[in-house]
Amino acid sequence: KGKGRGKKSNQEVSEEDKAALGRFLDTLRGSRRLMLISTPSRDATLFIQQTEENKRHQCELAVRKITVVTSVGEGSDATLTLRHQQLGSPLSDQSEQVLDSRLIPLLRSELGLSTSDLFSMTVTDHDIQPKRVFEAPPSSSTLFEYIDNFSSRYAEKEKERKSLPVCSKDTQDPRAENSLLRFMSKRRLLLISAPSDDDYSFQQQISALSGQECSLGMRHFAMLKLTGNGEKASGTVELLPINGRSQSEVEPLSRDMVNNLREQLKISKDYFSLVVVGKDGDVKAWFPSPLWSLDNIYDLVDSMELRVQEAKLQKRLGISCPETGGGRGGGSEEGRYPGYDEEEAEKMYM
Which intervals hold domain DUF4174 (predicted)? Predict the structure, then answer.
């Protein structure tokens, strides 16, 4: 008899928790989108990376009406907090609410997250229905493209296009913006940033880039290596040959320029990052770990309208990478391309 009462009590608690979950989700449904993050601890590397990304893109998250709910830890020590991303108030002014931790297993089950000992996150539309689960922090461009493909975003994006931009670049440090001016319209940037030049991921990426100079140069890339931080920040910029045959030019970057570039592009100084920047100065892709193959970057760049025009001109002039060079594409004998004026070609691509 006693056991029967115990089972009934557990059933009542379970139904009560389900009802509480339903009430909570109803407060968001139809008006907010939910980003649910689960992490084993607050000092887990993937969680720290995602938290920093959220801080950098607080305005963009607020525009998309994102509410961030974070589940930390396991069992009786687990905590659940909520923060609404809102326009017009700094992140520090947005209070974090503590939720009932009994909702954690129900939320995780409802939205299909991984077990509590692993990092995982998902973002829902206004319907708060389970969608894609990320097992690692996505790049900001990937995340926002994913959210912007929600059907409810179409009308919002149309309104945003007809009004002044809310998340304006004009608020950024003008000194940082000047760091990009010399490259604007002339070069795409491949930035490799790490806490130090002996960082393991940094060394892996440098190794993977060996032999890619021609393929990157043909796509008008300059390669920037940023290491250290604060007073110890340093870096170099390598201007890769855009004609497939010249030698690269390597220049040092000042400490201030390295710090300003990171500030301008919202690159963390504490973690490895591989960032692709277009000729318009906007970030096109961000990778939190090294790429052994650059095919994804080449596919991304080659799909851009400006790059299509560049490739047509290069083909017309018979310009390609030598067959012995790394990366995609064959080339002319010894990589020589008569009649190609590098400066004139660069002007045509601006």
Answer: 24-156, 180-310
Residue 244: the pLDDT is 67
Q: Which CATH number fits domain 2-161: 3.40.630, 3.30.980, 2.50.20, 3.40.30?
A: 3.40.30
Is residue 244 within 8 Å of 218, Cβ to Cβ?
Answer: yes
pLDDT-above-90 percentage for the chain: 41
* Span 17-76, pLDDT tens digits: 889 999 999 999 999 999 999 999 999 888 998 998 888 888 899 999 999 999 999 888
**pLDDT tops 90 at residue 236:** yes
* CB atoms closer than 10 angstroms to residue 281: 16
Can you read off the two tokens belonging to residue 159?
């309104």
Identify the bridge partners of residue 33 per DSSP, sorted by sequence position: 66
The pTM of this model reads 0.48
Asked if residue 71 lies in contact with residue 108, where contact means CB atoms within 8 angstroms, the answer is: yes
Please tell me the CATH code under which domain 176-348 is placed.
3.40.30
* Residue 107: strand pairing partners: none
Q: In the block, which residue shows the tokens 């100079």?
A: 213
Tell me which residue has tokens 């950098």: 56
Q: Do 152 and 134 contact (CB within 8 A), yes or no?
A: no
How far is it, in rounded angstroms, from Cα 4 to Cα 39?
Answer: 36
Q: Return the structure tokens found at 168.
A: 């304006």
Q: Tokens 């021609």 sit at which residue?
A: 214
φ/ψ of 81, rounded to 5, equals: -130, 160
3-state secondary structure 199-228: CHHHHHHHHHCCCCHHHHHHCCEEEEEEEC
DSSP, collapsed to helix, strand or coil, labels residue 317 as coil
